[in-house]
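Hello again,

I reread your note about wanting to compare the complex against the isolated chains. To keep things tidy I'm splitting this into two emails, and this first one only covers the full assembly. Below are the input lines as submitted, including protein chains and any nucleic acid or small-molecule components. They are followed by the predicted structure of everything together. The single-chain runs will come separately.
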Amino acid sequence: MLNAILTSKWTKVFLFLLCLAPAAWLVWRGFQGDLTADPIAFITHTTGDWTLRFIVITLAITPLRKLLRLPQLIRFRRMLGLFAFFYGCLHFSTWIGLDKQFAWAEMWKDVQKRRFITVGFAGFVLMIPLAITSTAGWIRRLGGKRWQLLHRAIYLTAMAGVIHYYWLVKSDVRKPLEYGLLVGILLVWRLAAWVIGRRKQAAAGSASRRPEPTTAESA
Amino acid sequence: MLIKKQPDLTYADVTPKTLYMGRRNFLLGLVATGAAVEAWKKLPRLVSAAGTGSVPVKLNGVVKWPGSTSDTQTPIEKVTTFNNFYEFGTDKGDPSQNAKNFVTSPWTVSVEGEVAKPRKFTMDEIMKIAPLEERIYRHRCVEAWSIVVPWIGYSLSTILKLVEPTPKAKYVAFESYYDPKQMPWASSAGIELPYVEGLRLDEAMNPLALLCVGMYGETLPNQDGAPVRMVIPWKYGFKSIKSIVKIRFVKSQPPTTWNMYAGGTEYGFYSNVNPSVDHPRWSQASERRLGPGLGLFTRKIPTLMFNGYGDQVASLYAGMDLRKNF
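Full-complex prediction:
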């Protein structure tokens, strides 16, 4: 039953629409004239929040499919990662178009001068090659191992996103710390899994010298 | 950068004192004060049986102050739903939700310290010390947004003079009401509370420094600092302390909440609006005016030195390096 749900094409369609809901909700509130007294700040914060949420969700896929023994979850990872990029684009273009109103020189000064913008900008730019190379074709072209290495850049983006948030809030740091905790857990889990994997490999290697299978999906 | 500006007021516009204190005005003032006191007395009864907090009541006969800005006013719905009042939560929308049960009556303000006649003022007394004026001020937040609000009150100097400050008094320290039971959100605000603010004595005595008891024709809503707050239009908004319970005359510069935060590197004691001194995390050169409408494509407007009130206050800072004393 669970397997049927996880492998159904309709689940993916449903999830796709669900991921669009935050954007749809913003548009709907816009038509209601209900974007708070400072709509530009509200849209910036909402899209930024969802970028971080989708990064966290994407990073959670691998631990979840291993812990819950649900390998089918991998089907959704690319889409979730691309939604992180989608909300990141909305966030970035809100800043460019609505906040800074295409004052390029001023924006470039901000990127250099204000550390929260510097780190946020870096995190966003790092996502661009990942979005471009997210297709099966690019996995083939790059080779599983190289592709995997490249896509570990998402760890840096996640950290940059948390630091970006932490540096921009005034005094109430609860929300950035919550994201920091989640990203921290997800990265520490990977580190632990890697250490344990190496030990097992070393033990198995000394016993039978069997080569470790690698796939793009184990990142 | 040279900022050309259209000053709201020049010295030529100042009403001569004799005219200002003229008989008609004085009588009008009496009527206004009477009406204000009547409105204030109704307040406790308006505290609903459901146990919710104080709600604004209409203030009648408020005198129009001649120096008001002609800038478009920010709609009241925005000023009451977009607040920085960390005791009631750090999200802009929190105070309008969380301050609903805040009870602001009875209320007293203690004026004390280096004064000949320290005194506790009840809210009734505060409402009738002077005729209430409606003053439309620009209000510039340090976060680079601004609003235009018709505040109601009178010059802080009026009440300060009543307690007769001694020659030792050099600064005025303010303290907000703080009750962790009524304000459980305060524990995660990330700033030390109670909220404290301060002004140099000459700043506090400047006629623009408004002791504010209302806005948009009514008493103050809780989230906007009921029942009495400061409005200091030439300084960033956080200097305009809300829900005041204590005003203390002191000899030396008092600690202020946001100045203490981050060791004074981000928010100065003076915090005069100054487009040429950036906050470390954002530029102060321009601001987003929150006006009528959705405001999705609002162009930023240049921020004016002293928020455009230089004619009235620049002399307070003659000879001071405002980059250092930001």
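For quick reference: Chain B has one domain: 11-317.

B.
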